[in-house]
Structure formats: C-alpha cells, structure tokens
Amino acid sequence: MLSREQIAQRIALEVKDGYCVNLGIGIPTLVANYIPKNMYVMLQSENGLLGMGPFPKESDIDADLINAGKQTITTTPGASFFSSADSFAMIRGGHIDLTVLGAMQVDQEGNIANWMIPGKMVKGMGGAMDLVAGAKRVVVAMQHMDKSGVSKLMKKCDLPFTGLKCVHRIVSDLGVIDIGDNEFILREFAPGHTAEEVKKATGGNMRIADDVKEMKVN
Q1: Which domains does the chain have, with CATH numbers?
Q2: pLDDT tens-digit profile, the chain (218 residues)
Q3: Of these residues, 46, 58, 183, 214, which one is catalytic?
Q4: Is 46 marked active-site?
Q5: How many helices (H) and strands (E) does the chain have?
C-alpha cells in the first residue's frame, strides 16, 4: 500500500500553475510539501489565510500561524490574513480551483461522506460542505479500505453525506480513480499491485480504463 506521503505526492500532480487550492485535514495537508517550487500556487485555509506554505521546521514554528486543523504552518511571500467570513465567501463564490479532502466513504455516484459516524460525538461538518459545493474540482485522499478490510469505495455511502455527486477524482493507497457514469474508473494502480487487484478491493462498480497505467511515486 502507498504511504500517506506517497498519496500526497501523487495528488500534488493535480495542482496546476496559478491555482487557488484548499487542503483539508489529514493526508491533504501533506500535499503542500510536494508542490514544485517553480509553480505559483496559492493555498487557502478556511480560518482566513491565503498563501499557506509547507509545514515548518522545528526552529521555524510560530504558534500564532495555524491552519484550519490547528496545525502550525508557514506562509509564503504575499500571504494575506482575513476573517473566516471572507474565507467562506471566497469558497462559496467559486474562487477555489481545487480542494483536496479526506473521506470515510465515497460511492460510485461521486457522493462523499467525511464528517461523522452516527453515535459518535463530532464538533460539526466544518468547511467541507461548502468546499464540495463551491470548489471547481474535488479530489479525495483516502485509504482504499478500512481497518477491517472493508472497501471505503462503495456502491452507496451508508454514512451521512457531506456532498452529492461532487467528487471528481480519488487518490487512494491502491490507485487513482475517477468517477464515471455511476461507476468508478481506474486510471492508475499502485506499484506492487495490478488493476484487477484494485478492482477486487473496490466495493462499488469499477471499470478499468483502456489506458490504465502504474502510478509514478517515489
């Protein structure tokens, strides 16, 4: 299986020059470390920051600089700070080119569930509901199966939805998967695995693309 860092490395290839990108909590935050230095990208955080940099070294930590997940961060030259109201106006106004989110489940219709498990106490949905509705492209970073070996890529999510028919691409520890017409489409499979193995590990309907290839990760 790919590591969290390798998943983030592959997702960094989804980022294009000039993009405004929002990175969710968990694996998505690692993507900032793999964006090429020569690429102009503005990373946005829901708590009111545009121009987020990679995670700081121990000597550079500033406790006053945090992302929406309360992790310490760095800023890039030209970064700006503003209220969460302005931040969500940016998201809801369609100004985010790409958001990368974690998920507990994604189904073959492109629905996502990533905010709660019934019966467990949660603080709330946070910005995920706004991001899946307002961002131009939604990429999900996730483990392909849960700790019990059950696929998290399903025919239909059975956890409460965050958004409906909003996911464009999934990068899991087994491959790169797009959402087609009520089916998953396997574009790339992880090194050490085969396309058929990824299909077998998927709970929903999956079609293997004619030009499927092995993922390129370090």
Answers
A1: 4-214 (3.40.1080.10)
A2: 899 999 999 999 999 999 999 999 889 989 988 999 899 999 999 999 999 988 888 888 999 999 888 889 999 999 999 999 999 999 999 999 999 999 999 999 999 999 887 777 666 677 899 999 999 999 999 999 999 999 999 999 999 999 999 999 999 999 999 999 999 999 999 999 999 999 999 999 999 999 999 999 98
A3: 46
A4: yes
A5: 4, 13
